[in-house]
Automatic annotation (TrEMBL):
Name of the protein described by the UniProt record: Chorismate dehydratase
PANTHER family, sorted: CHORISMATE DEHYDRATASE
Gene assigned in the entry: mqnA
Family note: Belongs to the MqnA/MqnD family. MqnA subfamily.
Gene Ontology process terms (BP): menaquinone biosynthetic process
InterPro entries (UniProt xref): Menaquinone_biosynth (IPR003773), MqnA (IPR030868)
Function (record text): Catalyzes the dehydration of chorismate into 3-[(1-carboxyvinyl)oxy]benzoate, a step in the biosynthesis of menaquinone (MK, vitamin K2).
Catalytically driven reaction(s): chorismate = 3-[(1-carboxyvinyl)-oxy]benzoate + H2O
Top-level taxonomic group: Bacteria
HAMAP family, per the entry: MqnA (MF_00995)
Gene3D superfamilies, A to Z: Periplasmic binding protein-like II
Alphabetized Pfam families for the sequence: VitK2_biosynth
EC number: 4.2.1.151
Molecular function GO labels: hydro-lyase activity
Amino acid sequence: MTDGLSRPIRIGRIDYTNVWPVVHHFDPAALKHPAEQVQEMPAVLNRKLREGEIDLAAISSFAYGDSSESYYLLPDLSVSALGRVQSILLFLKSPLEKVVNGKIALTTTSATSVNLLKIIMEKFYGGKPIYEDAEPSLEKMLQGADAALLIGDHAIRASWQNHGYRVLDLGEVWNLWTGHWMTFAVWAVRREAARRNPEAVRDIFEGLTVSKRMAYRDLEPIVSKAQSQIGGTREYWQGYFRNLYHGFGPEQQAGLKLYYQYAHELGLIDHEVNLTEWPVAVAGNFAEPQVRK
């Protein structure tokens, strides 16, 4: 039992490859305070954190912005890219000129990517397409649409197929138009959970920080895991993981603030968003976590 709660703290986990460098070496059973891990798709974790069913999770950046008054950010943790991300992909059956005012089939698994697409289509290209939700199957999505958005491992697998479609990497498009980083996911904790259980949150934050550091020292375990579970070559996965960044410094924050500004201007978010990091971590009043041997 954790202080202030009648149950262990609940941690949401996305099992997409892009978060593996943060979570691969993270073991809830090794924490000092009891914790439960809940593994779900991003959209489900977004809802569970918002409704208080879980206490801390990696969530879509858009989901943080939508409920930012309820959350603290865990510092220096994100899924970001400067340019190509290779797993947020728009597959075009029709020419781009038609797509921007045509029909786009959307995966429903990530709010950040869906709203990034809307920003790109409407703010950058001046279009107004029709969006329809669909299950993440490329061929089925494109039966009645001009383009299809896939994310995560579905996007990666589809990018390996010899389908002949033009493919836009939304991270690359964002960077070409803005010059900024794009942050796709952040780690957030509900504010009441952080206030009532600071030691448990500190334990989790330190565990994630150590896990990230271990992964960055040696990418080979997650490269091998990706090859085994998803396929592809060692060279592909080495490039994929090296293209991602899992810190959250001033440059990544500037890019995310611009994303929120555009989302607000388009009415996708009905308020201005502040990035509020967990005050205990910002104060730095705990020991630097050590890498476990």
